[in-house]
Amino acid sequence: MNRMRDFLSELKRRGMPAALVHRPENMRYLTGYTGEGCLFVSEKAQAILTDFRYVEQASRQAPGLECVRTRMGKSVEALIGELLERAGASALAVETDFVCHDGFVALQEALPGVQLAPLGAVPEAMRARKDEGEIACIQRAADIACRAFDALLGKICPGMTEREVALALDYEMLKLGSECAAFPTIACAGANGALPHATPGDHALLSGELLTLDFGATCEGYRSDMTRTVGVGKVSQELKAVYQTVLDAQLLALEAVRPGAVCQEVDRVAREYIDARYPGAFGHSLGHGVGLNIHEQPRLGMGDGTVLEAGHVVTVEPGIYISGLGGCRIEDMAILTSDGYVNPIVAPKHLIEL
User: Fold this and answer.
1) Residue 244: partners with Cβ closer than 8 Å, 6 or more residues away
2) Which end of the chain has less neighbouring CB within 10 Å, N or C?
3) What is the pLDDT of residues 84-115, one digit of tens each?
4) Taking residues 167-196, what's their average pLDDT?
5) Sign of the CA dihedral 7, 8, 11, 13?
6) Nearest-CA neighbor of 228 among 185, 182, 199, 191?
């Protein structure tokens, strides 16, 4: 398949004769296989190494690849050594940012004549630019999330706990066809809104609070990501000002998103706007890539000089977090095209007071 061919070309360009891939998202991206195990890649041999439970699955999802069955009296490391011999390779690139220390040591001990080197982010760099099929999956996931949010609005009321809100939102997404939540759904209200990644708890919603909902759906492994903040009843002018500042900053940042824009410059647009009004209240990056993982390359953040290109899919999610008062975040997605971007998040962004 083209992805495997491109991966092999990149390995060759970097002087890597063979690679071992353990990260599930990278295996899925390169082969379509979603089970457990690892993937060996060289010019002469491409194989999925897995045990009996996944052999049939591998044959269905990656029919063009060899399947090497493990737990048959030989260690996985010994089987990798045999594949290296067949490939005529004496060096192996490994995902050292994913494989645990003990696993890496086991490879070293079993392959004494093989030079082990970091694979780096080769598959992740390939995954940064999405093709039409990937974008279609992300758009379907975004549509599910938006419809779930719309269905939830009529059910939120004072007295519900954050946990109940999160469960109700997850249920709506599953009912609409999501494979699973894209990540643990965030529902935080009142003072808990000052926690950007709060865990939904037993706090019961009170009239006058802001409620932040950060969530996404999953279609064929691809994620969506959106955040909306709503008022539980009427909110104070102070909270309305916070909300309007976040919305204005997000709209300014979205105007800056285009092919050729530098990630850190897009981040700066929103950050400077918020810092001028609420100094230090926006502490995380403006956004991140989304795909098979909820956080991928590129990153809209300080220090990231990546230039946006068609096929990049990023979030734009400024926020304000004030201890003791609460917080607000508004998040959309931008699918970069040749001349701009498409935003698949169509849920309203004006302040909704339930």
Assistant:
1) 351
2) N
3) 999 999 999 999 999 999 999 999 999 999 99
4) 98
5) negative
6) 185
pLDDT at residue 310 in the model? 98
190's CB contacts (< 8 A; 6+ apart) are: 203, 205, 206, 209, 210, 326
CA 68 vs CA 40, 46, 268, 310: distances in Å: 10, 10, 49, 38
How far is CA 308 from each of CA 38, 122, 133, 223, 311, rounded to the nearest angstrom?
31, 18, 20, 20, 9
In angstroms, the CA 312 to CA 302 distance is 18
pLDDT (average), residues 117-127: 96
Of 70, 61, 66, 52, the closest CA to residue 34 belongs to: 61
CA 173 to chain centre: 17
